[in-house]
Design a protein that fits this description.
Shape: globular
CATH superfamily of the largest domain: P-loop containing nucleotide triphosphate hydrolases
Helix content: 25-40%
Radius of gyration: 26 Å
Number of domains: 3
Oligomer: single chain
CATH class of the largest domain: Alpha Beta
Largest sheet: 9 strands, mixed
Length: 455
C-alpha cells in the first residue's frame, strides 16, 4: 500500500526537504518552501519495477539526425525565435502575463499548421469549447485538422494523445492539469512537476511536439518550481505592455537554436500580426525638434532594431534628485550620469532625470550608453539633435567611447531608414563601413568629443 507523507519543496529551484526551512540550501532564496503531500511506495513492490523495460545503450555514431525534421509554424517571427521551425518531439514552454496573447498566438500557429495537413490536439483546462471556437472564428484560420479537448485529468489526456497520435499537442495551461495519484491541488509544485514530467515522456517517446502554456508570478517568472524550466527544451516569454499594441516573443532557453532572437508582433482585432520591419514600427510617432530625443540601433539576436531613447532633465525641487528609468537598467542610468558630471564637466547632480525607451521595449545592451548620454545632455541644454542622426557606442567609467559589435549591421539599418549621420565609436570605423553610401560617419573617442560634435 502507498503511504502518504508531507514534504517541503522550494518553489524557486525544486529542492526537496523533509522539514520547512527559511532559506533554501539549493538556490539560497528566502521563504520559498511550500508544503506538499506525496505518496511513497515500497521499493520492493511489483508496481515500482518493470522487468525488461530498461533502454539499451546506442552508439553515438549510429544515430542518424535528419536536419529537415522541423515543421514550419506558418509565422516567420515564431520560427525565428524557435531557431528555424518546430522540432518534432520537443517540449516548449510559453510564459507571459495574463491577457498578453499566449493562447491567441498558439491558436494562430495551430491554424497555420493544420492547414498543412498536420493533426493538432488543443487541450484546454481554462476555457470551454465554445469559447475557443469564438476565438478561432475571430482569427479566421482554417482549423480542419485541429481537435479540441477540454480536460484537466492528465491520465485522460495521455490516453487521448496515444489514441489520436497528433503531430502537435497544446496544453493550456500546465497549472490547471493534475494527476489523480498525486495528492495535492492542481497548480501546486508537485502537480506541475509531475505533469511536466509526464508530458516530456509522451513527447520524447512518440515524437510529438508539446507546447505548454505557463502562468507567471508577479515577478515575471513562470509559476511553479524553477525545475520546470530545466525540464523543457525551449522556454519562450511573451512580453509587452497590455495597453500597447506590440508584443515581443523572446527565447530564454533553446536547445535547438539561439536564445538571442526575438519575434515582434502587433495585436490587432483579428489577432496577432507579424511586424517584419520593427525599426519603422518603433520609430513611428516620433516628435521632430524635441530635445532629449536620440535614435540608437540595438541588436537583438541577428536583427538590428532602431529605437528612440528619451530623456527629461529638469531642476529638482527637493534635496534629493529623482532618477527614473523605463526600459533600461536604472543603475546604468545613475552610472552614466556620474560619468557625465565627472568626465563631461556638466553639473547635473541637482537635476531630476527621467529616461524612457519609447514604445515600452526593454533593452539592456551596452551599445545604448552613448545614446543615453547624448539624450541627457540634449535635454539638460535644451538643444534638439538632428532628427536624421543615429548614435550608438559603449561608454566606460573614464568617459571613453568603446567599440561595439555588429557595427556594420547597425549602420546599414540606419542608412536603409534614411538616416544621414551616424555617431559611433572611432574604433569601429573601418573600410567596410566607409563603403556604405548615403550616411556620414562621425567617430568619437570620448563623451567630450561626442558632446562637441552634436550639441
Amino acid at each position: 500500500m502507498a503511504k502518504t507523507k508531507t514534504v517541503f519543496f522550494c518553489t524557486s529551484c525544486g529542492y526537496e526537504s523533509s522539514k520547512w526551512m527559511g532559506q533554501c540550501p539549493g538556490c539560497k532564496e528566502w521563504n520559498t518552501f511550500s508544503e506538499e503531500p506525496v505518496k511513497i511506495t515500497k521499493s520492493g513492490s511489483a508496481a515500482s519495477k518493470s522487468v525488461g523495460s530498461a533502454a539499451e545503450p546506442v552508439l553515438l555514431k549510429d544515430i542518424s539526425v535528419d536536419e529537415a525534421e522541423r515543421i514550419s509554424s506558418g509565422s516567420a517571427e515564431f520560427d525565428r525565435v524557435l531557431g528555424g521551425g518546430i522540432v518534432a518531439g520537443s517540449l516548449v514552454l510559453i510564459g507571459g502575463d495574463p491577457g498578453i496573447g499566449k493562447s491567441t498566438l498558439l491558436l494562430q500557429v495551430a491554424g497555420d499548421i493544420s492547414a498543412n495537413d498536420k493533426k493538432i490536439l488543443y487541450v484546454s483546462g481554462e476555457e470551454s469549447l465554445k469559447q475557443i471556437k469564438m476565438r478561432a472564428d475571430r482569427l479566421g484560420k482554417d482549423y480542419h485538422g485541429m481537435l479540441l479537448l477540454c480536460e484537466t485529468d492528465l491520465d485522460a489526456i495521455e490516453e487521448s494523445i496515444l489514441k489520436i497520435k497528433p503531430d502537435i499537442v497544446i496544453i493550456d495551461s500546465i497549472q490547471t492539469m493534475y494527476k489523480e495519484d498525486v495528492g495535492s491541488a492542481p497548480g501546486s509544485v508537485t502537480q506541475v512537476r509531475e505533469a511536466t514530467a509526464l508530458l516530456m515522456q509522451i513527447a520524447k517517446q512518440n515524437s510529438i511536439t508539446v507546447f505548454i502554456v505557463g502562468h507567471v508570478t508577479k515577478e515575471g517568472a513562470v509559476a511553479g518550481p524553477r525545475v520546470l524550466e530545466h525540464m523543457v527544451d525551449t522556454v519562450l516569454y511573451f512580453e509587452g505592455d497590455r495597453h500597447a499594441s506590440y508584443r515581443l516573443l523572446r527565447a530564454v532557453k533553446n536547445r535547438f537554436g539561439s536564445t538571442d532572437e526575438i519575434g515582434v508582433f502587433e495585436m490587432r482585432e483579428e489577432g496577432l500580426a507579424e511586424v517584419m520591419d520593427p525599426s519603422s514600427f518603433m520609430l513611428s510617432g516620433r516628435a521632430d525638434g524635441a530635445s532629449g530625443s536620440v535614435v540608437t540601433c540595438a541588436i537583438e539576436g541577428t536583427r538590428p532594431i532602431m529605437i528612440e531613447v528619451q530623456a527629461l532633465v529638469s531642476k529638482s525641487a527637493f534635496g534629493m534628485p529623482r532618477r527614473q528609468a523605463t526600459g533600461m537598467d536604472y543603475n546604468r542610468v545613475n552610472l552614466l550620469m556620474a560619468v557625465i558630471e565627472k568626465r563631461g564637466g556638466l553639473q547635473i547632480a541637482d537635476q531630476d532625470a527621467y529616461i524612457n525607451i519609447a514604445g515600452g521595449i526593454k533593452i539592456n545592451e551596452p551599445a545604448m550608453d552613448l545614446a543615453t548620454v547624448m539624450s541627457i545632455i540634449s535635454s539638460f541644454k535644451n538643444k534638439a539633435l538632428d532628427a536624421k542622426t543615429v548614435i550608438f557606442g559603449e561608454v566606460g567609467l573614464s568617459g571613453e567611447v568603446r567599440a561595439v559589435s555588429r557595427a556594420e549591421s547597425r549602420v546599414r539599418e540606419a542608412a536603409k531608414l534614411g538616416f544621414t549621420t551616424c555617431v559611433l565609436p572611432a574604433a569601429n570605423i573601418d573600410a567596410s563601413l566607409k563603403k556604405i553610401k548615403g550616411i556620414t560617419l562621425i567617430g568619437v573617442k570620448d563623451i567630450g568629443e561626442a558632446k562637441n560634435v552634436i550639441v
